[in-house]
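Table S4 entry, Helicase SNF2.
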Amino acid sequence: MGRSERETVARGGRLYEAAQALAGDHARAVEAVREALAPIHDDLARRELDVIPVARLKDVTEGRLRLGEVEKGGFRTVGQVLDAGPYRLRQLPGVGQQTADQTVAAARRIADAVRDTIAVHIDVDRPEPRTTALVMALGVLVEAGPEARRAVDAAGALSGRLGPLLAEAGPVAGRLRMLFAGQAKRERALAAAAEIRALTEQADRDGVPELLAQASVDLLRHPESEPAALVDFELRSAEYYGLLAEVCGRAPDPAAAEGFLPDEVAERVRTQTLDDTHRRVSLRGYQAFGTRFALAQRRTILGDEMGLGKTIQAIAALAHLAAAGQSHFLVVSPASVLINWTREIEKRSTLRVTPLHGPDRREAFTDWKDRGGVAVTTFDALRGFPAPGGGELGMLVVDEAHYVKNPDTLRSRTVSAWAGTCDRVLFLTGTPMENRVEEFRSLVRILRPDLAESVDDHDSVAGSKAFRRAVAPVYLRRNQQDVLTELPALQHTDEWEEPSAADEEAYREAVRAGNFMAMRRAAYARPERSAKLDRLREIAGEAAENGLKVVVFSGFRDVLRAVRDALTDAQGGAAGTSQAPGRLFGPISGSVPPARRQQLVDDFAAAPGHAVLLAQIEAGGVGLNMQAASVVILCEPQLKPTVEHQAVARAHRMGQVRSVHVHRLLCTGGVDERLVRLLENKSRLFDAYARRSAVAESTPDAVDISDLALARRIVEEEQARLGTTPAEPATEQA
C-alpha cells in the first residue's frame, strides 16, 4: 500500500463529490420549478373548488352525507367548506362532530382530485410575474438539455457505486489507519481501491468529469432576462411543457401512452434499452416508448397522430443504433419534407446526414456508402440507387408510408426491395389505419408478410382499440388527447421546400423587376408546379385524415386564391392525395365586412370534422378567435414577428382543447431565408415584447421606414446574388 492507492482514493473522492454536487444542482433546479408552480397550481385549484357546489360532496360519499344544515349555514361551494374546517362546521345548528369531519374529508378528496387534473397554461400574450417565474425556472432545465439529463444519470450511477467503495477504502487514506486495520479490513480496502481505480479510469475515458462539470455550469446558468425567457418559451414551448409534466409527475394514462398494446408486447418494449449518446433532444415518456417499440419490434409502423413527434422518435431510434455500432441508415420521404428531415437530424442528433437529391445525388450516394451516417432521399430518387446487401443498412425509415400503400406501383416495389435487405424498418404515417384495412395489409406485407394475412376486417369494425390489439406486433398509434396531459402546447415547424424550376423562374422575374412583394409570393405564381402548394396539400390532407381543422394565413389575396384552388382540386381526388372531402371557408380579407368575417369563423367552427379557413393575415390575425383550429399554416414569413405571433394566437388561446401545430412554409435560397434570419433575431423579438400595446397590436400591418429600407436592401442583395439586371421597381400591392 502506498501513494498510488491514496491518489486513487483521492481521485475517486473528487469524482464522487462532483457527482454529488451535480445531483444537488439538479435537485435545486427541479425544486425551483416546483416552488414557482405551486402558487399558480394552488390558485387554479382554488378557482375550481370555488365553483363546485356543496351538493357534489354527496357523490364522494355515495349519498350518505346530510348537507341540508351545512347549506342552510351559507356554505355553497367545496372551497368554502375547506376554508371553514370541521370546527366552524360544528358551530352550525344540527351539525355534529361526525357530519363535520365527514364533510371536510369529502371536500379534501375532491380537492385532491382537482389538483391531480389541473393543467397550467402559460400565456405569453399576457405574461404575469408568477408564470414568468415558472418559465425562467423551467428554462434552466430546458437549456441544460439532454446532456444534463445524461450527466445526472451518470452522476447517480457513480454515486451509487463510489459511495460504498470509498467507505470501504477508508483505511487506504492514511498509513496509521491502514496499520491498525485488521487483515480482512486491509484486504477489503485494497480491493475497493482497485475498483475505484477502474471506475475513475473508465470515467476519464468516457469524458464523465467534463460532462459533470459542464452540466453543473448549465444548471447554475439563468436566463439573461424575463423577455429572453418568454421568447425561448415561445420558440420551444413543447419542450417546456414536457419538462413541466415530468417534474410534476403528471404522466398520461400508461395504457394510452403505450397505444393499448397487449401486455406481452408492451412488456417486451419496456425492457428495450435506449442509448441517448448521439441524441440532442429529450424524449417525452410516450416518445421514448415509441422509440423502444421501433427497436424491440424491428419492423414496425409508427402511426402517431400529427404533432406527437414521429420524426423525433425515428431519429432517437437511429441514434440508439449508431451508439450500438451501426453505421449506415436511410430515410425515404416525399421531396417536400426532405430538407426538413436533413435539418431535424442535424439539430436533434450528432449523426452525419447526407441528402441524396438533385444532380449530384450519385456522388452523394457514393460518399454516404464510404463514410456512413444517415442518407435522406425521395421515393423517386430511391429507384436510381442499388439496394445494399443484407446487413449493410442499420435501419430504413420511410416517412409518409401511406405513399407506398399500392403494391403495384414502382414506388412501392422499390421500397419493398430495400426493406427486404434490412433487418430494421420503420414506417411513419399520421394517417389512421383503422378504417383502411386493405391499405394496412399492403404496408404490413412489406414488413411482416406472415402477419399481413392474419389482419381481419372485423378487427377494425370492433373499434380502434380492438384493431390495435390485433396488429400490436407491428403497429403503434397514440392520439394527442390521450398522451398530452398539459393544456395545449404550441408546436412550430419550419417546412423548408426546395423551389421547383417554375418557382425559380417566377422568383428570378420578381427579383429582376425589383418587386419585393412579388418575390415573397413567387412560390405560388405557378400553382401547378409549386413546391409550397404541394407541401400545403400534404399537411391539409393529413389534418383531414385526423379530422382536424386548419387555418391558412397569407399576406396576399392571390396566394389565398391559389391555395383555395389547390385544396379544391385535392378534395376532388387529385392524384397523390388522400385528403377526405372537407369544407373550405373564406378567404377572410380586408374587403370582407367584420360581421361577415365573424360569420365565416362561426361557420368554420360549427362544421363537423375537418375544415379549412383561409384568411389574409392582417384581416384574420386580429380580433377573431379561431380556437376550433389545431393546425395553422403560414404561407410565407412576415416582416414583423408580431404579425405571425398575433395570427397564431387566434388559434392558440384559452378555449383551445388540442395542441396547435404551426407550419411555416419556406423556400430555400431566397427571400424566405433572409426574412427567417431576421425573425429569429432575438433583439427584434425582445423589442416586440417590450413595445406591446393596444395600439401596436391593433395595427400589425403597419409598415415603417425601416421595413421599406429592409425590403430595398433584400431586393438589391438578391439581384446581386442572382446576377440579374435590375429593372424599374414595380409598385404592387398585396
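The domain at 251-483 is CATH 3.40.50.10810 (Rossmann fold).
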